[in-house]
Fold this sequence. Notes:
By secondary structure, this protein is an all-alpha fold. The protein is 81% helix and 0% strand. The protein contains four helices and no strands.
Amino acid sequence: xxxxWPEHGPWLLIAGVAxxxxxxxxxxxxxxxxITEFLDPNERGAYFAKRSRVVAITSLLMLCLAGALLSLFxxxxxxxxxxxxxxxxxxxxx
Length: 94
């Protein structure tokens, strides 16, 4: 949206971020309820430790893969295709 209306760009960006985080915070009570229902209080720490480890390793691997993909497409002078693939993959994964 900020690119469509540059004169209002900063305000549209701030509004978009605010809407994003507002919508994200609506899911927190459901997530907390789900976790307390399915996980024993003694198992929560181990679960979140494993979950954090998987998220960190996956993030690092995807960052390296995205960098390699951009390097490849830069050599082919098709950098925009590399960015398109990365952002579409990130959007679908989200």
